[in-house]
Amino acid sequence: MTQNIIGHDGVIAGRIGTRQQAKVGVFGPVVNLGSRLEGMTKQIGVPILVDETTAMVVREDFAETEGRCRRIGRFCPAGMETPVEVFELLPPEDESHISNEHIRTFEAAIDAFIEGSWDDALDLLSEMPARDRAKDFLLMQIASHNYEPPEDWDGVIRMTKKETWSRDLLSGDAVK
C-alpha cells in the first residue's frame, strides 16, 4: 500500500550545503507532523492521512465528488507531545466502500471512544464494512485494553513508534 500525507501550513524552503553538495528541502512544524502522519498510515492501515487544518479545507472547499474526509481520532504521534486530530482522506462515495453514512457512523464511534464509552463505540463499529482498516485499528485499540478505557483515559491514542503496522499492532507494541 502506498502511504501519502497532506499538510496545510507555512513551511520554510531552502538549500543546505555547499555548491558541490547542496540539498533542497522544506522545514517547519507541518513538515514534522507530515512525517509522523506518513508513519501512522502504515500503523492504521489507510493510504492517506491529513491534519485537521487540511481536513477542514477539504470539507469546506471540495465537492464530495472530489474527495471526502473522516475523522480517525485524537493522536499523539511518536516524538510529539501535543495531541492532534487526524483524518483520513477518502475518494468520492461512488469510488469507495465507505459511504457517507459510514463516515457519520464511524465519527460517532470515534466520539464514543474518546469519551470512554467503548461499548457504544463497539456497537457503532459493528456497522462498518468488514474491510475497513481504520475500524480494525480502533477495534484493536479497544481489545488491547481488555475493552475498558484505562483509568487515566483522556481520549488520546499515543503512538510510540513511527511506523510498522500489523506485527507491532497485533502484539500491542505500537501503541500504549
Radius of gyration: 17 Å
**Order of the strands making up the biggest sheet:** 1-4-6-5-7
Strand content: 15-25%
Let me know the largest β-sheet: 5 strands, mixed
The percent range for helix content is 25-40%
How many structural units, i.e. domains?
Answer: 1
- Low-confidence segments, given as residue ranges, are 1-5, 164-176
The number of strands is 7
Number of helices: 6
Oligomer: single chain
Helix/strand order: EEEHEHEEHHHEH
Terminal CA distance reads 25 Å
Basic shape = globular
Mean pLDDT: 82
Structural class: alpha/beta
Describe the structure.
The protein is α/β, with parallel strands linked by helices. It has one domain. The chain is 39% helix and 22% strand. The protein is built from six helices and seven strands; from the N terminus they run βββαβαββαααβα. The strands form two sheets. It has a five-stranded mixed beta sheet with strand order 1-4-6-5-7, sandwiched between helices. Strand 5 and strand 6 form a beta hairpin. Helix 3 runs antiparallel to helix 4. 27% of the residues are buried. The N terminus and C terminus are likely disordered.
